[in-house]
């Protein structure tokens, strides 16, 4: 068998290549089938009809790359078993997201939540991907399902600007890979590196003016589900229990975004699932930042949080708590500044 690190590199490059090839094909297909995101509500931030189906390209690149890994390599029995569970759940997210994208007016949030909870239950109960640090079985299962559904929706909620959700997912994927690499949890490593590759093949088209394509709910729910599962698969507390906060920091931006828009919407008397312009990215835009600057700010923040997450896994309890406090104070100050910005 090939050197395993070299195999990760090949898998990464394969995912990029497949995504680069399939994304423009999906774009042309979306145009032909009239699967377009039409800016017909005040919540939409783009100005012209834009093709969906970018999520199909991402999902296809991820799935095909993993199939190639399984077919052309030989690992010990059950090494990649959990990949089946993630594939099943991710496919369910792909289908419900696709229906939401092509259905006029979209699906109601209740239908999507039912499928999300079902997918999470499959992962937890049938494939035992859950929060193993919680000793009480039923509580561990409950918290794991809530976490998977929450993170899945967080990546959907933050998908409000080109390159935002997908870029955050790339950084998160690499961070989870870095933390789990030494553990030899191959299904986590391959899921992470292949997802990063599939997204990197898509992002240039998403940011393009002439060949723009959105990943839609098809893509955002798909990648959110995979990352949620990946985050549950490795250990973070070999040095101290504070390391358990590492996945929260790796996913700090989408979690923060979800909390921010939910609180703002509830204060306005509307459900958190109802669209509004309370997103942090749109608040930064109101403050005068360009889309490029917002992406740079977001990616930089994600990298800083990723470093903090890694430090949580290696620092002593005291040092980690000190770092945690500093980050918490900074986030509180940022929240005060952002919520002071008036949005429509």
Sum this structure up briefly.
The chain has 344 residues and is mostly helical.
Write the layout of secondary structure elements.
Blueprint: H1 4-32, E1 36-37, E2 50-51, H2 54-72, H3 81-102, H4 109-127, H5 137-157, H6 164-180, H7 186-207, H8 216-231, H9 246-250, H10 252-267, H11 280-286, H12 291-312, H13 317-339
Antiparallel strand pairs: 1-2
Helix pairs in contact: 1-2, 1-7, 2-3, 2-7, 2-8, 3-4, 3-8, 4-5, 5-8, 5-10, 6-7, 6-8, 6-12, 7-8
Shape: globular
Total number of domains: 2
The termini sit apart by 57 Å
Rg from alpha-carbon coordinates: 19 Å
Q: Looking across the biggest beta sheet, what order are the strands in? A: 1-2
Topology as H/E string? HEEHHHHHHHHHHHH
Strand percent estimate:
under 5%
Query: Helix content range of the residues, please?
Result: 55-70%
Main beta sheet strand tally, sense and closure: 2 strands, antiparallel
Give the mean pLDDT. Answer: 89
Count of helical stretches: 13
Number of strands: 2
Sequence stretches where pLDDT stays below 50 over 5 or more residues: none
Find the structural class using helix and strand composition: mainly alpha
């Amino acid at each position: 068998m090939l050197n395993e690190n070299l195999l990760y590199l090949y898998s990464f490059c394969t995912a990029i290549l497949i995504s680069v090839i399939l994304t423009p094909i999906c774009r042309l297909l979306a145009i032909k089938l009239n699967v377009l995101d039409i800016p017909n509500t005040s919540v939409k931030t783009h100005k012209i009809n834009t093709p969906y189906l970018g999520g199909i390209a991402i999902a296809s690149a991820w799935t095909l790359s993993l199939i190639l890994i399984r077919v052309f390599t030989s690992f010990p029995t059950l090494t990649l078993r959990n990949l089946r569970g993630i594939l099943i759940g991710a496919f369910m997210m792909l289908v419900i997201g696709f229906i939401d994208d092509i259905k006029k007016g979209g699906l109601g949030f209740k239908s999507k939540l039912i499928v999300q909870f079902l997918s999470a239950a499959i992962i937890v109960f049938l494939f035992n991907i859950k929060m193993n640090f919680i000793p009480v079985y039923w509580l561990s299962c409950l918290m794991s399902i809530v976490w998977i559904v929450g993170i899945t929706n967080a990546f959907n909620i933050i998908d409000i600007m080109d390159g935002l959700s997908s870029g955050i997912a790339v950084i998160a994927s690499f961070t989870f890979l870095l933390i789990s690499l030494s553990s030899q949890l191959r299904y986590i490593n391959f899921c992470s590196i292949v997802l990063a590759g599939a997204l990197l093949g898509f992002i240039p088209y998403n940011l393009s003016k002439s060949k723009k394509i959105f990943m839609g709910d098809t893509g955002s729910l798909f990648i959110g589900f995979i990352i949620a599962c990946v985050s549950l698969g490795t250990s973070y507390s070999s040095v101290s229990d504070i390391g358990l906060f590492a996945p929260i920091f790796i996913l700090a931006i989408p979690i923060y975004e979800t909390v921010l828009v939910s609180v703002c919407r509830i204060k306005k008397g509307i459900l958190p699932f109802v669209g509004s312009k309370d997103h942090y990215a749109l608040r930064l835009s109101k403050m005068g930042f360009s889309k490029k600057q917002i992406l740079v700010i977001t990616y930089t923040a994600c990298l800083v949080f990723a470093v903090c997450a890694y430090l949580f896994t290696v620092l002593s309890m005291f040092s980690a708590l000190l770092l945690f406090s500093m980050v918490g104070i900074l986030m509180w100050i940022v929240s005060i500044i952002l919520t002071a910005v008036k949005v429509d």
